[in-house]
């Protein structure tokens, strides 16, 4: 179920281009110890947010199988679109 995320430090990609956002987030995952991570992609449309969260959740799982990523999105549809992929390390939260 989609929830509201309490205020905390979050990573915000410096681009709205999905491929560049994936590269940015994956670079962060590679270079920083981030077993638990929050990423704000609420400025992206549903399709782009689904793509970015799927690709980066996979990368994060490979490095941190027990870790979690909190995705801050603008629509609950993002979670519905990615639900079938069983990304067990992803949680989706609506932006305020």
Helix and strand topology:
Layout: E1 3-4, H1 18-31, E2 36-40, H2 46-63, E3 68-73, H3 77-82, E4 90-94
Parallel strand pairs: 1-4, 2-3, 3-4
Helix pairs in contact: 1-2
* Overall pLDDT confidence: 90
- Outline the biggest β-sheet: 4 strands, parallel
Per the principal axes of the C-alpha atoms, what is the gross shape? globular
Number of strands: 4
Q: Total helix count?
A: 3
Query: What share of residues are in beta strands?
Result: 15-25%
Helix content: 25-40%
* Low-confidence spans: none
The secondary-structure element order is: EHEHEHE
Give the end-to-end Cα distance, rounded to a whole number of Å: 16 Å
Keywords:
96 residues, alpha/beta, 4 strands, globular
Model description:
With 96 residues, the chain is of the alpha/beta class. The protein is 40% helix and 19% strand. It contains three helices and four strands; from the N terminus they run βαβαβαβ. It has helices spanning 18-31, 46-63, 77-82; strands at residues 3-4, 36-40, 68-73, 90-94. α2 links the parallel β2 and β3 (68-73). 29% of the residues are buried. The mean pLDDT is 90.
């Amino acid at each position: 179920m989609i929830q509201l995320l309490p205020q905390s430090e979050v990573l915000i990609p410096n681009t709205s281009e999905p491929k560049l956002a994936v590269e940015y987030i994956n670079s962060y995952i590679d270079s920083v110890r981030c077993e638990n991570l929050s990423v704000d992609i609420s400025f992206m449309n549903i399709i782009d947010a689904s793509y970015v969260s799927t690709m980066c959740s996979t990368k994060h799982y490979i490095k941190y199988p027990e870790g979690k990523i909190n995705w801050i999105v603008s629509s609950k549809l993002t979670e519905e679109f990615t639900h079938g992929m069983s990304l067990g390390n992803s949680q989706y939260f609506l932006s305020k």
